[in-house]
Amino acid sequence: MSEEKIQDQAAESPETSDSSTPEEETAIMKDAANAKEDFKEPKKHQMPLAGQIFIALVCAIVVGMLIRNHADFAVTYIQPFGTIFLNLVKFIVVPIVLFSIMAGVVSMSDIKKVGFIGGTSLVYYMLTTAFATTIGLIFANIFKRFYPLLNTSNLSYDAPPKTSFMDTIVNIFPSNFITPMSEANMLQVIVMALLIGFAIILAGKDAQHAVGTINTWNAIFMKAMDMILRLSPIGVFCLLCPVVAQNGAMIIGSLAMVLLTAYICYVVHAVCVYSFTVSTLGKMSPIKFFKGMMPAMLFAFSSASSVGTLPLNMECAQKLGASKEVTSFVLPLGATINMDGTAIYQGVCAIFIASCYGIHLTLPQMVTIVLTATLASIGTAGVPGAGMVMLAMVLQSVGLPISGIALVAGVDRIFDMGRTTLNITGDASCAVIISHMQDKRNAKKAAKEAKVENAQA
């Protein structure tokens, strides 16, 4: 039917626009706008962030291998752009953690609920870390006979100063308001956010304006995070390309078997432990979980920073169905204390270093490594290279020479990329599981309240 005929019929209709009510006219305008949208050309689908990051990762590896003879160029002119991107991510991490935890605590309006989430997270993280160390020791012993026996006569390594257990406890609590944020001390930032959140809950009506302010700032920083994460593919390329250019020869060199062992352990732990816990405790398909986590995993592999990956990890976990109040608390906590990948790294390197020195570790010593690595991983800072400090603690616990760390120091960044990927995946699995458990608790509570109301009626 032609447009002229439609207009003629509309003119002949007894119901003219003059007799229409304002509500009807508004509805007609909306229908016209919707019809106009329907006839527009369909928007081209944008490639998902995971696909963009994966392409950037592949390009970084290819370009890095091609310019291995010009690694200085990559470090001087490509890496700075990656550093700029990582600085932007780290800039947004502290306010995201501070305001998201405060917003999550306030939204729960129940200190006991926060205690349940925090306690459950801590138990889950420690158990998976113990499993990770065990897996690392098992596979390291299986592949031990393939390890190279490197010369240890001229090795030296300056061990960091020891920190006592009580000093570690004291350092969790901030001494002023600014220092934790300026130093990006995640544990202290988390404590600050919890204290302020609890205070707002206890203040009740007097703090209602603070609730709105916190939610507003949380929304602002979340939007800033979204803007920064759009640059992820560029950041991934610029961070990874120089690493490949510098370490390409080392990957296929004498430590290839040790690296391969660690990466096998990373994959086994993710596929076995996380798949089991997510499917049984979180009631989610492991395939769906890993597919949803792919953007964060690829970014973590490139940046080797748990804290730097935190904003993207929160986004992925929430898209998988984890509640905002859980992810805002569990993921920052996990980025600080959950180090499954670091635990595997410590187990594998302990066996490798022992074999280079001709030392055979006994079963009690391996149990000591499991316990030490589990405890040492709590508090490992989510920044590149921090696992070296924890490895020194593990070696000292079983009497191995700390100088052996020099054997693996050259490829620590390659280890770090894999262990960071595993760390953030474990954080997200915890968020998914606790969100499901929280939903079940809420459903039981609602059913119980409904039963009481029916009984009273």
Protein model, in words:
The protein is mainly α and 457 residues long. 76% of the residues lie in helices and 0% in strands. The chain is built from 19 helices and no strands. The longest helix has 45 residues, at 412-456. The chain is globular.
Short description:
With 457 residues, the protein is mostly helical. The protein has helices spanning 3-12, 22-38, 49-66, 71-108, 111-142, 165-171, 179-182, 186-203, 208-229, 232-251, 256-280, 286-303, 306-319, 324-337, 340-356, 363-377, 387-397, 406-409, 412-456.
Comma- or semicolon-separated keywords:
mainly alpha; 76% helix
Beta percentage is: under 5%
Radius of gyration: 27 Å
Low-confidence stretches: 1-20, 35-43, 380-385
Mean pLDDT: 80
Overall structural class, as computed from helix and strand content, comes to mainly alpha
